[in-house]
Design goal:
Elements: E1 2-7, H1 21-31, E2 36-41, E3 44-45, H2 56-62, E4 66-69, E5 72-75, E6 78-79, H3 90-107, E7 114-118, H4 120-134, E8 138-142, H5 145-148, H6 154-166, E9 169-172, H7 175-183, E10 191-193, H8 208-215, E11 220-225, H9 234-240, E12 247-252, H10 258-267, E13 274-278, H11 285-291, E14 294-297, H12 306-313, E15 318-321, H13 326-329, E16 336-339, H14 344-356, H15 361-368, H16 374-393
Parallel strand pairs: 1-2, 1-7, 2-5, 3-6, 7-8, 8-9, 9-10, 11-12, 11-14, 12-13, 14-15, 15-16
Antiparallel strand pairs: 4-5
Helix pairs in contact: 3-4, 4-6, 8-11, 9-14, 12-15
Length: 394
């Protein structure tokens, strides 16, 4: 029986249940095999105030110190994160915060075999130091901007390369991220590509007419899902509406750009065709995916965008910018179309193209069904077993 200490700041908690659900989902599928036991250390930035007026920061304060999620013990130690200037020191603050929690695991009899870290910087760097201290092998999963963005900066790049050298195994969620790590000098034979899967039971089609009636929707419906931050480029979806007079746009998510996006919709006089839905629980997303004609993903950067498969599992194709691993998801007409550049004209053109040759909902659902978690779970087991053998031989 493999025993994993899972380490990531990308993990849900009671105050922020949508945060890092893809990490939790992958772990749950792995534990369900009966071949792995796991405990989770998911550090949360320290913040003193719980009041709603502090927005996203207040969620840090409201997160429990420990909890049980889906039968897994999860610890949330606090670490210091100084806004804007704290990234250089974050790996070390993370390691210091997690050290007592991992030591407590061992004292309680959970003698973990491997540290399973998610996101290379700062988490993977902190985990490399922890693995060294506890003398256990490390597996790190790269998930997106940790490789595509942070590695552009000299200090994070050096730390990422250092952590990669310490790791007994590395996982990337798409080939594009593997290629990025190879460019940094990481040996290819150390890296395994294991794509994220989709929960085909949670995300399933329902009658489109019914949910549209429930939501009061008519005509062509476009859906944009994700944090309201600049790199998600929800603004492109809004701008494209000027060239798509028969379409309306639903935007699901919260974040610091909401007021900017609302102002843009007003400025372009499309506010009557833009609905800001706000936060939607994972368990309810399938209804919105089913109501839409397509998902619009206009991001500047992505690793493996889970929303693509979630929408497809509900029978809804996607028009998505060709970044990161997206071209590895959208590979057939049933999946949708790729947007070749970040411009409102390109977005509008892709939307019209997909509407003109819209696949059947059944075909899109069948396409998504090839992305179950089974293959990824088998791959994880192989990676962790190899890591423990390398650790024993070291």
């Amino acid at each position: 029986m493999l025993r994993l200490a899972v380490f990531s700041t990308l993990y849900p908690n009671a105050a922020n249940p949508a945060h890092g659900v893809f990490v939790e989902e992958r772990l749950r599928k792995l534990v369900a095999t009966g071949q792995v036991q796991a405990r989770v250390v998911a550090p949360v930035p320290w913040f003193p105030f719980r009041s709603e007026r502090f927005g996203e920061y207040a969620r840090f304060a409201r997160a429990p110190r420990s909890e049980e999620r889906h039968g897994l013990a999860v610890a949330h130690p606090r670490y210091v994160l100084v806004p804007r200037i704290g990234m250089a020191s974050a790996p070390w603050f993370l390691a210091c915060a997690a050290w007592p929690a991992l030591r407590r695991m061992r004292a309680e009899g959970f003698d973990f075999d491997v540290i399973d870290a998610h996101y290379f910087y700062p988490d993977g760097v902190a985990a490399a130091e922890l693995a060294r201290r506890f003398d256990v092998p490390l597996v790190v999963t790269a998930r997106g901007s940790d490789v595509t963005l942070l590695s552009r900066y000299a200090l994070p790049r050096r730390m990422i390369v250092w952590a990669a050298r310490q790791a007994a195994g590395i996982v990337t969620v798409c080939q594009a991220l593997k290629d990025g790590l190879i460019e940094l000098g990481v040996p290819p034979d150390k890296i395994t590509v294991l794509r994220n899967g989709v929960d085909l039971e949670r995300f399933h089609p329902v009658a489109q007419d019914g949910v549209r009636c429930e939501f009061g929707l008519e005509g062509r419906v476009l859906l944009s899902v994700g944090w309201l931050i600049k790199r998600k480029r929800h603004d492109l979806a809004i701008r494209a509406l000027r060239m798509l007079p028969d379409c309306r746009l639903l935007i699901i998510g919260t974040g610091p750009e909401e007021q900017v996006l609302r102002a843009l919709a007003n400025e372009l006089a499309v506010q009557e065709r833009v609905t800001f839905v706000g936060h939607v629980a994972q368990a309810d997303l399938y209804r919105y995916y089913s109501a839409a004609d397509m998902l619009l993903l206009c991001s500047e950067r992505e690793g493996w965008a889970n929303v693509l498969l979630e929408a497809m599992a509900c029978g809804t194709p996607a028009a998505a910018t060709n970044v990161g691993g997206t071209a590895e998801v959208v590979t057939a007409p049933a999946a949708g179309v790729l947007i070749p550049e970040h411009s409102e004209v390109a977005v509008a053109t892709a939307v019209r193209e997909l509407l003109a040759r819209h696949p059947s909902r059944a075909a899109t659902r069948r396409y998504a069904e090839q992305f179950s978690w089974d293959e990824t779970t088998r791959g994880q087991l192989a990676v962790f077993r190899t890591a423990t053998m390398r650790g024993a031989a070291a």
